[in-house]
Structures are given as C-alpha cells and as structure tokens.
Write a structure and sequence with these properties.
heterodimer; A: alpha+beta; 3 domains; nine-stranded mixed beta sheet; 15 helices; B: alpha/beta; Amidase signature (AS) enzymes; 16 helices; about 10% strand
Chain lengths: ~500, ~475
C-alpha cells in the first residue's frame, strides 16, 4: 500500500450585508420579508436617466469592518462596473470595486477549540451593491423581486489559510461576532446577512510527490453547520476522486458545487470555470472616494475592543475559564454589562455565573440580549453581593433572576423578601431550631453520636429537619456547623 | 415687432409686465408647430393642452400679482432624452418608443420651477449617437434653412425647433458636440456648459463622463438666461459640481460687459482642416475681435489629432454599459416569441436598436473586453489627459480659443450615412471640449454661398461660462448673423 497524506486548503469568499437604514446608492429603506418590489425607486430599478449616489454610512461601516480585520485603508478608492446580463440585475451591471478596493492586506485571529489562536490572512474587502432575487416557483414564468437590489454588501476574501472544517467554522463564528460587535451587520446567516463560499482543495503527498486536487467553490450555505459539513464532505469527496481517478488541478478545471442540505452533500453546478469577461471599467457616474486621515480617525474612533481580545483579557484579568470568557464575550453588550458590574465591585466569577447561567438563559428564551431584558450592572452587583454574604442561596439565584426580569422596578432584596428567598444566617435563631430538632429526634441523635454506619445518614436527616422548620431559609452551611458542634 | 420675433428674454419680460400673455405666445408657437412640423419634423412629441394649461397658470399668477420665475410663460422645447413624468421619453429609439418615465429630470424640474412652458420633446439621433439626426429611429428632421440638408445632431430637433421658431429656446445634450454642431448648422446659439455644471439626473445616459445638458437659443443673452435656470448643484448627481467649486452665478448680470484685454488663442494648423468658407468666416470674426482690442495668440494643440479616436473609444465603452439595461427584460422593446431566455435579450436588442447604436455598443464592448482594455480604453484615458493638458497650456496664454464648430456647413441628407467614419471625423472640433470637460459655445458667424449658417466656436477654461458668454456677446453685438432667419 502506498503512503498517502493530505492537507485541506480552504479560503473563503464572504458577503456581509451592512445594516444601513437605506440602500447603497439610493434612499430606499432596507427591509426583509416585505411585499416584493415595495422597497424600490427609479435609481435601484436602474431606470433610464438615473444616477447612483454613494451611501456614506455604508462606506464608513465597510471601513470600520476592514479596520477590525486589520486591513490597510488606501487613501483613494473607486467604483467599477461589473457587466453581466441577469434578470435580477436591472442595469445589467453591478457597481462594485475591481482593482482599487477600499481595503486590503488584513488578518483575523480565530480561536480554536484547543485554546490556540490561528491567524488567517485577509486579501481584500470591498464594497458593492447586491442584486435582486429571482423566483422560479410560481408557474411557467419567473418573478423578480428588487427589494434587495442595491443593498450594501461587503465582500471579504481570505487567504487559503484554513485547513479543517473546524477552522472554517471558527472563522465564520468569529466574523459574526465581530460584525455584531461593530454593529455593522446583524450577521444572521439564515436571513442571508452573511454568505460564505468556501474554495477548497487538497494538497496530497503520495509516494513522496505532491499533488493538488481541483478547486471547488461551494455555494448555497445558509448555516454554520452546513458550512462546516460541506468542507468535511468536500474533503472526503476530493480525496476519493483523487484516489479513484487521479484527477489533479489544471487550468480551468475549477468547479462550482452547491450544498444539498437534505442529502448532506455537495452537488456539481458548473464543471468548468467559465471564462467570464465582466468588462470592468471605472463607473463614470460616481466620483472616487478619497480617505483623509481625519475621516479615517473619526471612523477608527468607533472601533471597539475585538471579541477575541476581550475574551483573552477576561481570562487573564478576571481569572475566568476560556469557556466562560467565550460565552460572556459572545455579545458585546453582555460583555460590557459584566465589565461594568465588576467595576462597581461585583465578584467576577459570581457575576459571570449569574450572567451566563441565569440571565443569558432567560434572554435566549425571549430571543433578546441580557441588556435588553433591562438588567443593569447595579442588579448584577446586588445579586453577587447577596450571594457572597449568604443572604440568598445559590439555588434561589435562578428564581430571583426570573422574578427580577418580571419586576424590574423592585430591588432584588425586595423580591427575595417577598418570595421568602432570604437565607437566615443568624446563629442564635438557627441554634434554637437545632436544639428543638435534637430534642425531638433522640433516635437519630443516638445514631450520629454512636458513630456507626448510620451516622452519616442520620446527620443528613437532622439537617433536613432544621431546614424544614426554617422553611428553607436557614443557611445550610451554618446549620451544619451548629449541628456538628452540638453533636460532637 | 411681432410676438414671434421676440427673444426668450424679451418674451419673458413682456409676459411679466403684462404686455402679452403666455397663452397668446404659446398659441402662436403651436400655430408655427402645426405649420412646420410636417416639413421640418423637429418634434417627436408635443404637449399642446398641457402647455396651454401651464401658460394659463403663469398668466393667472401674473394677473394675481404673484411672483413668477425667470422663464415665466416662455415656450421651451427639450430633447427627448430628458425624462418627463408626462408623455414618453423615447431617445428617438424604437427601444424606448413606449417608455414613460415616472420621474422628471433635474432640468425639467428647474424649467418648471422657473415657470417655463414645456411645448414638446425634440427629435435627436437615437440615444444621442450621431451628428445629423438621421439616426433617429422615429422621426425625420430637416434643416430649416434647406430641407435637403441635415439639421446636424444629435440635438438636431432642438436646433431646428429654435431656428424655425417652433419654440423660444430648447435644451440639448452634448456628448461630443451634439449641442454646438447642430446649433452651428441651424444658425442658432448652442452652449455646452462645464461638465458637472448642470445635473445629469434624468438625462438618459450615452457617455456618462462626457454628457452635458445645455441651452440652444436665438441669441447669447437667452443662453445665459436658460443657463441661469438649469445650472446648479444637485445631490442626485455625484458628478454635479458643488458650490465650493462652482458657486452659483448670474450669467446675465455682466453679459454686456466686454472682456478687457481679451486674448484669443487660434490654432491655425488645426483650423485649416475646415472648408475655405468656414475658415473665412472665422477670420472675419477674429477681425471683429481685433477691432474691439483683442489680441490673437497663435497656439498649437499637439494632441488634437488623437481626440476623435480617444473619444470614440471612451464614449462607446460607456455607452455599451449604459445601454445594457435595454434588454427586453427590464426596459425597452421585448421580442414577440423568444425560443429561450437568452433570446429575450439577444433578439429584443437586435430588433429594436438602430445600426449606429449597435455599431457603438459593439465598439465599446470590444474596447472593454479582457485583453483589449489596456490597448484601447486605458490608452484613450491617457489621450484624454494629454488633451486636458493641451487646453491648460493654451489657457495660460489666452482667455479663450476660437475655432470652427464643424469643418463644413450642413451637409445633404444621406450624404454621409454610408460612411460612419467620415461622420465621426467631422466631430473633430467639438470633441476635445467634452474630453476636457470645459465649456464651449457655438454662435452664428456668417453664411456660405448656399446661404447656410456657419458656426463659430469659443472654448474657455472650466467654470468660466460667465466669461465665455461675455466673449460671445462681444461678437454678437457687432454682427447681425443671429438676426437672419430661414424663410
């Protein structure tokens, strides 16, 4: 049997929908799921005589994202027309950027499961307008919806630096976290806010010689899971194809494959890369964009700490676990809530637990963020303090969390009192109860003091009796201490 | 003086003062249109009822003492490549024969705000591609001075309408001379402003980096009056000049003030390409200027020889992309029975576009194709820069440059249709101004032996229309060419 080793090589082409209020080159409102062709105007419909006007907000969002991806921002960038005929493209050209994109040469650090971080190169990111949507399921005709036409799209092209499905997924998740941190996109794959198209092939070493399989570009991926699985599937398929038929990369044998989610496989869409001639040329209707230092620094001022940096800092600064820090930094406002609570004196570990295990759960159920629940840093501080001084038990934290969301105007203490969730730590009060229980249960006391094999069970029974008489409000730690002292 | 002989400015003043009504002037214009449209064919569409209603509204405002705009009640024609939300906007093409725009071009809004009365939409070469209006897919227009000759183009309908007094002024568009050359052929004034002076919003694009809307009028003062109305920044056109670069200006204010110490550049080598009678008229005009105290400066334009070639690469490249939307799917004529989806595109375009438009789409597509881009488009852009440089050095020595508008006077209908290259080469004097983005004006400078008007062209640096108009007015004040009208 011959010796064969392989390495997967993946680069991504990513489209991110920028969450501007209006479209890239006209004033139409951006809206999803509304009546077809209800968010259109002469400009985005490409009517004779109309002219595009650049949406400055979209450009600034694009630059902000590029800065977050550590790209360089040239001082001069321009718009080009990319020509092709398609029904979803009313002008039959797309306004895009060709040889002078608004950003290039960046990188993104992605956290791997191993706890390591891998740096993936970004070749370029440019801004363009989206096309409309064709529908072919209405009968013996096709319908075109131009609501999406002219939406601002940021196209990001990575270096082929990823070498496993995990890494591809990690990049996608990290990018989603970044665009959401920056507030430039909702980043929802199902809604098409982010589209990932992996370009994948294998470097195979066989009998000391290296081969490359033909590159396949995969389309129609609408979830992280599909993205990850498609890369895994494609790796296996290309390996099989190589071992069965020995096909290697040649000029023009790049193919386009679609992901079939029902059958969990990729399906060939276009065998040969067509020799597309898009006849790019500078769009004479738009003036080039010149970026001066003042404008760039104004945009840069909106740059926040990136999620991975925040995550690393939470680990080192607050001694949180990698996992906890990851969960906490998933949403920027949640991470900031945590930081503010800690700054106000909350214990980091307890604050993290309260946020991630209690409030995050409620927020997930409601489909919102923790901050959107109305939870303030002060509430987190109050809760951690109550736990620390033993006013509430760790088991009642989750009840108090639920109740506090429903009663935002009340303090946690008021809620705890109202629902009898305050824990008694008063030694005198507890001692009185312990004395009663010892007096009422001589047999159990006998079992404990004799030190036999029934001792442990009997001790538990007595403790339970004390808790029952305190209606669950006695601090169990203190009960145990007093019991131990009395029965020693 | 009869109402017909008023200039736009005179008519406006007469209407505003109550001496005449806009309804009377408009009715007179429609009488003239009814009389001459069958023979001259200046219009594709006219709006008699609408125009009379607008005229009535202006008269009502004046009677009520309400303020009125600078073109109050003046009947104006617009070229049929400017969108109106009333009537069709055809670009003289079968492709757009049934297209009605749902919006008004910026210039239409400006005219309306100035209380002008829009009488109709003038014929043109299809999509403004041509120099004779013979490329119109919908209508034939002849030169009012000689019905066997072309009115020039592509704004031939606008020029003919002004010359034949079928309106008091018109808007044309100029991509490579399409305002100035027909103005010259028809003996009227035609002004192409600085690129960006007038918003292109609503002008159906031909060559976007070259297209510019401008007035075509009976005299220089009217050109200034109309430029006042249509010029100005428009946010909807990114290439429209902002007030920081091109501040608002009253072009009428100093129109009669001669330019002191005027220096006129002349490129004799270049002018010698024109017919002798055209050259003689230019020489006469220069004599007039000299007598007024102007100094003539001999200059060379070393890169002008490449202007036509560069222009026909850039203009066609842009056109090939601008006209892609007329595909039968989104806009324009759709073929009756396509066999498949690709045929919806190919047959629709094949059936409705005229020969010249197809020729230019193919030229432009070729020039932009991968592997040819550098050799054609990129090289043409370099020539464009060199031509800008030629003008820069000329304007260091002189206030303006004077040259013919066209090498000949109006040629016979059909004379050049068989040889498109001959037609292209005749654009030699007008094209450079579009490549450089500078303003240019064509004014009447005499007549040839066949009693056909000869145009004279004056070009000045970007943003200096006020001065350009004053220089033109200096000549007009000394001559009577603009007062002669066709029979």
């Amino acid at each position: 049997m011959s010796d064969l080793q392989y390495r997967t090589i993946v680069g991504l082409e990513i489209h991110v929908h920028l969450a501007t209020r209006t479209k890239m080159f006209c004033g139409c409102e951006m809206a999803y799921g509304v009546r077809p062709n209800s968010r259109v105007c002469p400009v985005c419909m490409g009517m004779p005589g109309v002219l595009p006007v650049m949406n400055k907000q979209a450009f600034e969002y694009a630059v902000l994202t590029a800065l977050a991806l550590n790209c360089s921002i040239p001082s001069f960038t321009k718009w080009d027309r990319k020509s092709y005929y398609y029904p979803d493209l009313p002008k039959n050209y797309q306004i895009s950027q060709y040889d002078l994109p608004m950003s290039e040469n960046g990188f993104i650090d992605i956290p791997l499961e191993s706890g390591q971080v891998k740096r993936i190169g970004i070749i370029r990111a440019h801004l363009e307008e989206d096309a409309g949507k064709n529908t072919h399921t209405l009968g013996n005709f096709s319908a075109v919806d131009l609501n999406r036409t002219g939406s601002p799209l940021l196209e990001i092209v990575t270096e082929p630096d990823m070498s496993s499905p995990d890494e591809v997924r990690a990049l996608a998740v990290e990018l989603q976290r970044i665009v959401r941190y920056l507030g430039v996109s909702e980043g929802d794959m199902q809604k098409g806010h982010m589209r990932f198209e992996p370009n994948i092939n294998l470097a195979i070493t066989k009998d000391g010689q290296e081969y490359r399989t033909p590159i396949a570009e995969i389309k129609n991926l609408n979830s992280f899971r599909a993205l990850e699985r498609s890369v895994a599937y494609e790796t296996a398929r290309q390996l099989d194809e190589f071992t069965d038929r020995g096909i290697t990369m040649q000029m023009g044998n790049k193919s386009t494959r679609g992901w079939d989610d029902d059958n969990q496989c990729t399906v060939l869409q276009r065998e040969k890369e067509e020799a597309h001639d898009y006849r790019y040329f500078p769009d004479p209707d738009l003036v080039p964009v010149e970026m001066d230092d003042e404008w760039l620094s104004r945009i840069r001022a909106d740059l926040c700490e990136m999620p991975i940096q925040k995550q690393n800092r939470f680990v080192s600064e607050f001694a949180l676990s990698e996992y906890d820090a990851g969960v906490l930094t998933q949403i920027r406002s949640t991470a900031e809530l945590f930081e503010q609570a800690v700054a106000l004196g909350a214990d980091p570990k307890k604050a993290c637990n309260i946020i991630t295990q209690n409030f995050q759960k409620i927020a997930n159920e409601k489909g919102c963020t923790v901050c959107e629940l109305g939870i303030t840093p002060e509430k987190i501080v109050e809760m951690t303090n109550m736990v620390t001084i033993g006013q509430i038990s760790s088991t009642s934290v989750s009840s108090i969390a639920v109740l506090s969301v429903a009663n935002l105007s009340k303090t946690l203490r008021e809620i705890a009192v109202e629902h009898n969730l305050i824990q008694t730590s008063d030694a005198g009060e507890i001692e009185a109860l312990v004395d009663q229980v010892i007096a009422d249960n001589p047999a159990a006391v006998e079992d404990v003091t004799s030190g036999g094999k029934k001792s442990k069970k009997a001790r538990g029974f007595l403790l339970g009796q004390v808790m029952q008489r305190s209606k669950g409000q006695a601090n169990p730690k203190i009960v145990a201490q007093i019991l131990a002292k009395k029965l020693s | 003086m009869s109402i017909q002989d008023y200039s736009a400015k005179q008519l406006r003043d007469a209407i505003a003062s109550g001496a005449v009504t806009s309804v009377a002037a408009t009715a007179a214009i429609f009488q003239q249109i009814d009389k001459l449209q069958p023979s001259v064919g200046a219009y594709i569409t006219t709006f008699k009822d609408r125009a009379l209603a607008s005229a009535g509204e202006v008269d009502r405002k004046i009677a009520a003492g309400e303020p009125v705009g600078p073109l109050a009640g003046v009947p104006i024609a617009i070229k049929d490549n400017m969108c109106t939300d009333f009537g069709p906007t055809t670009c003289a093409s079968k492709v757009l024969e049934s297209f009605s725009a749902p919006y008004n071009a910026h210039v239409v809004e400006q005219l309306t705000a100035a209380d002008a009365v829009i009488v109709g939409k003038a014929n043109m070469d299809e999509f403004a591609m041509g120099s004779s209006t013979e490329n119109s897919g919908l209508q034939k227009t002849v030169n009012p001075w000689d019905a066997t000759r072309v009115p020039g183009g592509s704004s031939g309908g606008s020029a003919a309408a002004v010359a034949a007094k079928m309106c008091y002024g018109a808007l044309g568009s100029d991509t490579g001379g399409s305002i100035r050359q027909p103005a010259g052929f028809c003996g009227v004034v035609g002004l192409k402003p600085t690129y960006g002076r007038v918003s292109r919003y609503g002008l159906v694009a031909f060559g976007s980096s070259l297209d510019q809307i401008g007035p075509m009028t009976a005299d220089v003062t009217d050109a200034a009056l109309m430029l006042n109305v249509i010029a100005g920044h428009d946010e909807r056109d990114s290439t429209s000049l902002g007030p920081d670069i091109a501040p608002a200006c009253d072009y009428l204010a100093d129109i009669d003030k001669p330019v002191e110490g005027l220096k006129i550049a002349v490129a004799t080598r270049f002018n010698a390409l024109a017919d002798e009678q055209v050259q003689a008229a230019i020489a006469q005009a220069l004599d007039v200027y000299t007598k007024l105290g102007a100094e003539i400066v001999e200059v060379d334009m070393p890169h002008f020889d490449y202007a036509v070639a560069a222009y026909y690469v850039i203009a066609t490249a842009e056109a090939s992309s601008n006209l892609a939307r007329y595909d039968g799917v989104h806009y324009g004529h759709r073929t009756e029975k396509p066999n498949d989806y690709v045929e919806v595109y190919s047959k629709s375009r094949e059936e409705a576009f005229g020969q010249e438009v197809k020729r230019r789409i193919m030229l432009g597509t070729y020039a932009l194709s991968s592997g040819y881009y550098d050799a054609y488009y990129l090289k043409a852009l370099k020539v464009r820069n060199l031509i800008r440089g030629d003008f820069t050095s000329v304007f260091e020595k002189a206030d303006c440059i004077v040259m013919p508008v066209s090498p000949t006077t109006a040629f016979k209908i059909g004379e050049k249709t068989a040889d498109p290259l001959q037609m292209y080469v005749a654009d030699i004097y007008t094209i450079a101004a579009n490549l450089a983005g500078i303003p240019g004006i064509s004014i009447p400078a005499g007549f040839d032996n066949d009693n056909l008007p000869i145009g004279l062209q004056i070009l000045t640096p970007a943003f200096t229309e006020a001065k350009l108009l004053r220089i033109a007015k200096m000549l007009e004040n000394q001559t009577n060419h603009h007062k002669k009208h066709p029979e």
